[in-house]
Design goal:
With 57 residues, the protein is mostly helical. 49% of the residues lie in helices and 0% in strands. The protein contains two helices and no strands. The model has no long low-confidence stretch (mean pLDDT 94). Bound molecules: iron/sulfur cluster.
Amino acid sequence: MALRRTVDGVRRYAELRGHLGPPAEPLKRPGPPCRWCALRDDCVEGQEYLSQADDHR
Ligand code: SF4
């Protein structure tokens, strides 16, 4: 599992940097890490996720 995540992360980094073709557009993927993300106060997607997650507690 950890190896797969590492490989996925390296692949995504290479895509974003344009090492595998034209640089990929960065995407926001809201999820549990939004709770401790330093950008969450300025991130609409993260705020929406956290609001919905709090509604289901
Ligand atoms: S708060 Fe925004 S930038 Fe931070 S992890 Fe969530 S979606 Fe990504």
